[in-house]
Specification:
Two copies of one chain form a homodimer. By secondary structure, the first copy, chain A, is α/β, with parallel strands linked by helices. Chain A is built from 13 helices and 15 strands.
Chain lengths: 416, 416
């Protein structure tokens, strides 16, 4: 008896595991040095409290002792909750009448991560391919490989916008889906309407040629969090075989409660079968159903008024701090991450960390993140996100953490 | 784009899906004929309300608006919750001092189903085998096949006690685990201490011969629900490489909330690595962590006083009703299921439903369950549980449902 070989290898590999490890190290560092002496940008754990309405509704539902309050319900979730989620998607994507979703287009899930696993289990045959533009949420690798699929990372443009030509070139007869995440974790990029239109036409064209029109899976937990009035493109009106997966982890600050959903475009060729399959995989993967209590909560709170100006301020602050340290980054349009270029080493002893990445020299960002750790600054290396030479700072942390990080970050940069 | 081929096949297959389908049909039948005219024994959805303490604590935690109340925590769960679960297992298994568990032996999970998926993902290499005595919870098939493993059903004795000799004969160099469920769903059987001891010695012997001592995975959501003062055998003192997976779905009537845990025997050879692997798979399978709110609830409620006499009464009532209809069954020792033999058809036109099952003739229980449905009686066919010719009645339903079912059951039997 022993752990499975491939799991052992994955656990020991660099990359995605590093983020969670840092989060757990951060807890230990804070216990050792004090909360205010550790600058933990490792994890997208929203530090904004949930809106007041969440507390009200949680208390209401806590008082509800009606029969079946905590019982099983159909695997797809409560009808009233699925109706509310359909309303949410219709509102966000401006869908009415024939193009609108109803409860039968929705499966409630254990967060967006649970949603993606249910979807990939439902659609992936062995060796099927899922194309994802770089950078991408590190965990996608697991979600796709869990079910025998291959994640195909594809380069993006310099500003991290979609390189539709690159996606086109990556399409094969094995392509089951293209997975996009907008606003993007880790880059903060919002994919433009014109890029999505171009992508849609490439995918339709591929469908005509091969008979397989890929799903376009839109992972949208950050949809509500945008800067400078930017809006997230609504994909359903632009592409039929589109699916939204999302959660209330980020917009309502409920990541620990594991509540999200899958919604399919009513115009999707096999919408009904897709929902039936996701309901089945939600059951058989052992989620069984999304947690009952928070299904009731989000049914009433999905349209709660939330003020994200807190993140706007933090975004301004951290871009200042990082700019002042002479570190390059791409200005985020949404979400709460800053994706930075690991700076080239200054000290002779660190020149070893200049490495070759195809046709350019970059800095080994693992080494730089280790270096930052000496200053109690915790960041996530970019390789996990498909972008070696970069690192991610999650700025869903207190203003003090950002402010007080300025000096140690300068020092770290100067002693690199 | 289309659903994965194997998922399509599984969705269209008879067997396990049938239970959930019945549950959902039951909801529709009740809407049509009225709650009191449908006798729905399809699903183990506890009809006993959660104990009063649950409501108290849910209300307490609802009032807690401290920072991070709904945030991410380490993937294994809150330390305080894992400590409480260690206390629970130590109490149940009478473990003290060196043999006792602490928080590092526990991973919180999305119910027992989530726990089993995390465990199998952690330990199964492709084509590894998991032995399970018949009958067994139908969903085990999916939980093992999800990760490329093979479930190896093994016959039990006539009274559904363990046939250790049969298990011994099924052991191979591919056997990674033996999975037991006691009290058993669907038979209600509790595996005796002497049988577990015999099993342990067979597994140790196999370990000596092959170098691989299988895990013994004990799925125990029904541990607290037993009849006639029967106690569930504690496995940790009897076998080192033992694991408990369980939930609060049945003992605290919280199935919809998806809260459970994995606990490893501290004496297990690779306890530390096992927990690390299950923590990793809990993350990468998209559970991420057990729902935060109910982690807090069960930390305070695991030892709540619960009176299961309601199930004792129901057990007496249903055995009366089924006996009076002339249907054979095995007396349950725990859980809330009655596992019955589908009676041989009386009518000439139904003789076609007598089928051959190895060396004996049995009744096609799918046909009998379909027949029962005409009388609005919903039961789960036994083939899904590895026992063709049987059907399961979940008696976690109102006394009226049981009482009022007597007449239609008699009628159904007579017109079969």
């Amino acid at each position: 008896m022993a752990i499975a070989k491939h799991i052992k290898e994955l656990m020991n590999s660099k990359g995605s595991s590093v983020i969670r490890k840092m989060f757990e190290e951060g807890i230990q560092l804070k216990a050792k040095f004090g909360e205010d002496k550790v600058y933990d940008f490792s994890l997208g754990n929203p530090d904004m409290p949930p809106p007041e309405k969440i507390y009200q509704v949680v208390n209401e539902i806590a008082k509800d002792n009606s029969k079946d309050r905590h019982a099983y319900m159909p695997n797809a979730g409560y009808t009233e909750t699925r109706k509310a989620m359909a309303d949410k998607v219709n509102f966000e994507q401006n869908l009415t009448d024939d193009s609108a979703l109803n409860e039968n287009h929705v499966v409630m899930s254990v967060g967006a991560a649970g949603a993606l696993n249910s979807v990939f289990k439902a659609i992936l045959n062995s060796e099927d391919e899922v194309i994802v533009p770089c950078p991408f949420f590190a965990e996608y690798r697991s979600y796709v490989s869990n079910f025998g699929g291959n994640l195909i990372p594809v380069k993006s443009k310099k500003d991290f916008s979609l390189d539709v030509e690159a996606i086109k070139n990556a399409l094969t007869s094995k392509t089951t889906a293209v997975l996009i995440n907008s606003p993007n974790n880790p880059s903060g990029k919002i994919y433009s309407e014109s890029d999505i239109k171009e992508l849609a036409s490439v995918l339709y064209e591929h469908g005509k040629n091969t008979g397989i029109t890929p799903y376009l899976i839109c992972d949208e937990p950050y949809r509500a969090i945008t800067y400078n009035g930017k809006k997230v493109t609504s994909v359903f009106p632009l592409y039929d075989n589109a699916v939204v997966v999302t959660s209330f982890a980020k917009n309502l600050s409920l990541p620990g409660e594991r509540i999200g959903f899958i919604a399919v475009n009513p115009k999707c060729e096999d919408a009904k079968e897709f929902i039936a399959a996701c309901t089945y995989t939600t059951r058989t993967l052992g989620y069984v159903n999304a947690p009952a209590f928070f299904q009731k909560v989000v049914a009433k709170c999905w349209n709660a008024d939330v003020d994200y100006s807190m993140y706007t301020n933090r975004c301004k602050m951290i871009t200042e701090v990082v700019k002042n340290a002479g570190i390059e980054f791409v200005e985020p349009e949404g979400a709460f991450y800053l994706f930075c270029k690991a700076p080239m080493p200054i000290l002779q002893e660190n020149k070893q960390f200049i490495i070759n990445n195809g046709d350019e020299e970059i800095c080994d960002e693992f080494a730089f993140c280790d270096h930052l750790k000496k200053y109690n600054i915790l960041c996530a290396p970019g390789s996990g996100f498909g972008c070696p030479g970069y690192f991610r700072m999650a700025f869903c942390v207190s203003e003090n953490t950002i402010k007080n990080c300025a000096e140690p970050l300068q020092l770290a940069k100067q002693s690199w």
